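Okay, is this right?
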Amino acid sequence: MKKLVSIICLMAVINVSFAQADTQEKYAGHITGENLAKHLNIIASADMQGRETGTEGQRKAAAYIQSQFKAMGLKPIPALNGYQQFYPLYQDSLVEAELEINGKDAVNGTDYNIPLNGNQSGEFKSKEIVVAGYGIDDEKYSDYTGLNVKGKTVIIFLGEPKKDGKYFLSGNNRFSEWTFPGITKKLATAAAKGAAGVLIVNPRQESFNERVVANGKKTGVYYPREELKEKTVSYALLSHAFAKSLIGDSFDKMLSAVKTNSIFDKEWYVRKKVKVELELKKERNIIQASNVAGIIEGTDKKDEYVFLTAHYDHLGMHNGKIYYGADDDGSGTCAVITMAEAFVKAAADGIRPRRTIVFMTVSGEEKGLWGSEYYSDHPFYPLDKTTVDLNTDMIGRIDTERMKDDTLNYVYVIGHDKLSSDLSIINEGVNKKYTNLVLDYKFDDPADPNRIYFRSDHFNFARKGVPVLFFYDGMLQADYHKPTDTVDKITWNLYEKRARMIFHTAWEMANRDDMLKRDLPLNMGTR
């Protein structure tokens, strides 16, 4: 009798397992090339004008995605009272700029240029200039040792020094934060030292071209990052000829050293009695961009969250040409929409996920991951309760550089060995069970020269400790960031298969007993 009961129980488990498998496949079957194309032909159409963040094209795309989320029955985000998370972007216009040296007006656009982003309206005056090398103050290297710049105008050069072929500060071939964000950090350092203002020499910008001059009159839209709120000072960029007129003949030695990333010779730290007055007045226009999100509420674990993300923005229009962005990232955007439709169909049949699934398309990725950065700093759901972000950015094409037999049956997966040991187990398991794609991990190499891990929106979840997987086709050549990234180039069967694999991964992660462990380091260095 006991043996019979055991057999019956085993058969019941097997039947449940097959039923679950059949259930997943049933709803994954909604994710078809036809359904993906239905959305992609709209998202990547001329009417969307390339979807550049902060433009009418981006707003049209957001409205379309919202309409689809609403029509299919995704719930809006309670904290937002709707489907869109708006975030501000700035665009500055010049009202007045003036730089006087010993009472004589310098020529804006020829002698100097005042970047509007990173500068605030205001003025500074000083009676002395001091050259402070690269403008770095670090325990490993400092240009300010023994240098008093309080109340003075500091002249600094962009860049940082190398020693034995490696950057002095990082100790390797990667530059440090003194190069990026660079200017911001150097200005904050000068301000902390009491400098009145800063004049900057870019060793690779001898004079100012039309584009730079135009940006000194009106900026593009930009994201107001927190570091810009640090105490800072106003600054101007100098042409090489004008900088030499201020510094003197030693300028040529300085410039030569900086171009080769040499350590600055302290003998070059010029100090002169020069009267400097700078005045800047600008006006700011605030432009709203948005992330678009909707949810299927979970059951017994509804206060835990699975995110499915993609960026819906692209490069817009330039010189009369539309950058359609069909693969980048129309493909990811439409995969999120279509996966949402599949999960909604399951929920309508009474098969709801245990965890709440958040379908979120973000803007600003092409500008610097703005939308996901804003979300990670202003989350509407707790990040410590977010079990995973599955990010999809370009899954509709074939990597033209990939010369392998599996070219029509692969996807690059990034993040599998970082943050959580559960990631690869689950993803590889569902792939083996349902889709049998080749999962290529080459971009997870810390030595990856393309730095792909840092180049899409999953990074802003990862930097907060949320486990992530990023799915990607690797198309860095061919039509990447060109007007020719169009719908007709999509490989539909492969696109469909990749989207189904992501759907199955999300299904498993939304319904397992435990949240994903957070037990691995992020071994990719820093962005």
